[in-house]
Specification:
about 325 residues, alpha/beta, TIM Barrel, two-stranded antiparallel sheet, about 40% helix, globular, binds ligand PBG
């Protein structure tokens, strides 16, 4: 490369048109997955205090919301269920008439072509709020695998298009792949929350999903925030176990992990722009301290630039509106 003054970097920044041509990363509505919280009850549309613009919806209000998401061009939703009753095993999660199973069926009737992704975990369904079966005060990994498998098959049976497993149990992808295949859901793909960190950024989600652990924390199963080698090993194992899509979560504070995963693995890579990342922008914007639209677009672009092929984001609808308006 020539040096200054023969070479001037500013030449390629000198007009809108040339900046458009040389832009390396563009986010599109095609990249987005929109998370939705499904609540029990009737006519529920309950604002989540720490996540302005995001609500818990009962099934009767859900179908119109999903249709709106689809009409904006967003290809997929990710469903989280909030059951009426929680118990030790989170049994609503694998009940054929559970909250998620009902939600999937209602959505499918209304909006055929949207991709329905369902979260497979126990924390929203258990009275203790942990992502597994508790034995002697500890989370029992191998018993958890049986429950996660049951949840996955039950969701697939109800019509889920993609199983997203977020419990961070060792062996969960292999167990679920085996269970799905044994139940003839060989074509149902698995998205593995492979590198999921024990992050404080999940705070607002736990309010939304009512999934705060009632004792202790998640540090015995989710990744230490300081580690990247373990993240690569987690992803490696999930690839070996048959994951179709891998994930890094959260996104913003883990761009280095996204970039490494992109380099090392040849599978579609998702990243979850989690609740706390959303809340921080919203709070600052509501105070008039930042330009919400530019900040949100900058962050989402950085997640894509780091290497994410798809982004799970609470901003999906708003950004789709902004993008659609500018085209
Ligand atoms: C667990 C789960 C969590 C999130 C998605 N799935 C929370 C947790 O591990 O405590 C967090 C997502 C977010 O913060 O937006 N089922």
């Amino acid at each position: 490369m020539a040096r200054f003054p023969q070479y001037r970097m500013r030449r390629l920044r000198s007009s809108v048109a040339i900046r458009k041509l040389t832009r390396e990363t563009a986010i599109s509505v095609n990249d987005f997955i929109y998370p939705i919280f499904v609540s029990y009850g009737k006519n529920v549309r309950q604002e989540i205090i720490a996540m302005p613009g995001i609500q818990r919806l009962s099934i009767d209000n859900l179908t119109a919301e999903v249709q709106e998401v689809y009409d904006l061009g967003i290809p997929a939703i990710l469903l989280f269920g909030i059951p009426e009753y929680k118990d030790k095993l989170g049994s609503d999660a694998f009940d054929s008439t559970g909250i998620i199973q009902q939600a999937i069926k209602a959505i499918r009737k209304q909006t055929q072509d949207i991709l329905i992704i369902t979260d497979v975990c126990m924390c929203e369904y258990t009275e203790h709020g942990h992502c597994g079966v508790i034995k002697n005060g500890l989370i029992d990994n191998d018993q958890t695998l049986d429950i996660l498998s049951k949840i996955s098959v039950s969701q697939a049976k109800a019509g889920s298009d993609l199983i997203a497993v977020s419990a961070m149990a060792d062996g969960q992808v292999a167990a679920i792949r085996g269970a799905l295949d044994a139940s003839e859901y060989t074509n149902t793909p698995i998205m593995a929350y492979s590198a999921k960190y024990a992050s404080a950024f999940y705070g607002p989600f736990r309010e939304a999903a009512g999934s705060t652990p009632q004792f202790g924390n998640r540090e015995s199963y989710q990744l230490d925030i300081a580690n990247i080698r373990q993240a690569m090993n987690e992803i490696y194992l999930d690839v070996e176990e048959g994951a179709d899509i891998i994930m890094v979560k959260p996104a913003l504070a883990y761009l280095d992990v996204i970039a490494s995963a992109k380099k090392e693995f040849n599978l579609p890579l998702a990243s979850y722009n989690v609740s706390g990342e959303y809340s921080m922008i919203k709070a600052a914007a509501q105070n008039g301290w930042i330009d919400e639209q530019r900040i949100a677009l900058e962050i989402l672009t950085s997640i894509k630039r780091a290497g994410a092929d798809m982004i799970i984001t609470y901003y999906a609808k708003e950004v789709a509106n902004w993008i659609n308006k500018n085209n």
